[in-house]
């Protein structure tokens, strides 16, 4: 059964008029009173497995499209893509509350671009370390690059540059918020070290990332933040697109083929909008991934993004321009 057109139109208008690219996290229960489709995407009305809610069924609410909601996102166990959008007209909501972690409205006169928790998403920046070290001007400040050059290190996977809270209206200026100093546990250092090779030599780069980016969110302390960042890089490295890069170590990839791998992995052409390839000349230097504000626990990057695709790809003057991108090899 299709959701009534009027309800669908109201939901779309609500999404288009929203000031944020993402919905608002919420908690509560949704009890279906009629049979309705459960969509992966409201705008596209995607429902590849024909999933429905039926009268009497109860579901956990995880977010709404806006405070004055007309669409709710519920968790439907048993599906490969369990988070689905359902029209509010299809049932009733019990005990709805909004997560305290949602971005508060800044005080009048405050600088929103340096105020914690004003982000509307994250950017995961993953470095292709051999390409960075061989072709970027790092001015001798990267001991991990010296380790690659000497053969002390052998890196053949994507590594962590940073996990950056991002506010679209601030561009690249969101950062340097006030927050606690970095104080990572030994366990966290050991956990992150394989994915952030600078940690083999100290924590100066990690401290820089925390002071510039990490303190601009308060949902995770420094240990949780770096562990989650390492997990996300590992998931990117293990994705179809990540494995495509690693499989061509010392050779080249096709930019178009990379994005086709992204589409295949995420099951949507829109997923390519969340990815950006950064080059130094013709060599891959970095992969950036746009992620939603709520970093849901998931076994893969597909689950973390959870169908929340950007309307357009972000821009950067160092975006790889040619289709053929060289994948530098480094280490022994």
From TrEMBL:
<feature type="signal peptide">
    <location>
        <begin position="1"/>
        <end position="23"/>
    </location>
</feature>
<dbReference type="GO" id="GO:0006401">
    <property type="term" value="P:RNA catabolic process"/>
</dbReference>
<comment type="similarity">
    <text>Belongs to the RNase T2 family.</text>
</comment>
<dbReference type="InterPro" id="IPR036430">
    <property type="entry name" value="RNase_T2-like_sf"/>
</dbReference>
<dbReference type="InterPro" id="IPR001568">
    <property type="entry name" value="RNase_T2-like"/>
</dbReference>
<dbReference type="GO" id="GO:0003723">
    <property type="term" value="F:RNA binding"/>
</dbReference>
<protein>
    <submittedName>
        <fullName>Uncharacterized protein</fullName>
    </submittedName>
</protein>
<dbReference type="InterPro" id="IPR018188">
    <property type="entry name" value="RNase_T2_His_AS_1"/>
</dbReference>
<keyword id="KW-0732">Signal</keyword>
<dbReference type="GO" id="GO:0033897">
    <property type="term" value="F:ribonuclease T2 activity"/>
</dbReference>
<dbReference type="Pfam" id="PF00445">
    <property type="entry name" value="Ribonuclease_T2"/>
</dbReference>
<dbReference type="InterPro" id="IPR033130">
    <property type="entry name" value="RNase_T2_His_AS_2"/>
</dbReference>
């Amino acid at each position: 059964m299709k959701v009534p057109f009027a309800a669908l139109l109201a939901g779309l208008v609500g999404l288009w008029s929203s000031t944020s690219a993402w919905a608002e996290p919420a908690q509560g229960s949704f009890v279906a009173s009629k049979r309705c489709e459960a969509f992966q995407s409201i705008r596209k009305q995607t429902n590849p497995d024909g999933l429905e809610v039926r009268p009497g069924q109860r579901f956990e609410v995880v977010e709404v499209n806006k405070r004055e909601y007309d669409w709710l996102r519920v968790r439907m166990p048993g599906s490969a893509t369990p988070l689905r959008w359902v029209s509010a007209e299809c049932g009733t909501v019990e005990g709805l509350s909004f997560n305290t972690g949602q971005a508060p409205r800044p005080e009048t006169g405050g600088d929103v671009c340096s105020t914690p928790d004003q982000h509307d998403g994250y950017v995961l920046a993953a470095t292709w370390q051999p390409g960075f070290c061989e072709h970027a001007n790092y001015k001798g400040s990267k001991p991990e690059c010296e380790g690659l050059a000497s053969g002390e290190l052998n890196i053949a996977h994507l590594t962590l540059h940073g996990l950056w809270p991002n506010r679209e209206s601030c561009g690249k200026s969101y950062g340097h918020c006030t927050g606690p100093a970095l104080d990572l546990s030994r366990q966290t250092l050991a956990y992150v070290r394989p994915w952030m090779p600078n940690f083999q030599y100290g924590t100066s780069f990690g401290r820089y990332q925390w002071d510039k980016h990490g303190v601009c969110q308060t949902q995770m302390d420094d240990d949780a933040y770096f562990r989650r960042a390492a997990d996300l890089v590992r998931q990117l490295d293990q994705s179809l697109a990540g494995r495509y890069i690693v499989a061509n170590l010392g050779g080249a990839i096709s930019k178009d083929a990379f994005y086709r791998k992204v589409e295949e992995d995420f099951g949507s052409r829109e997923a390519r909008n969340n990815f950006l390839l950064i080059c130094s000349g013709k060599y891959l230097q970095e992969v950036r991934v746009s992620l939603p504000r709520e970093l849901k626990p998931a076994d893969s990057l597909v689950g973390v993004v959870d169908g929340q695709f950007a309307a357009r790809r972000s821009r950067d003057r160092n975006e790889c321009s040619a289709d053929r991108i060289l994948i530098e090899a480094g280490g022994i």
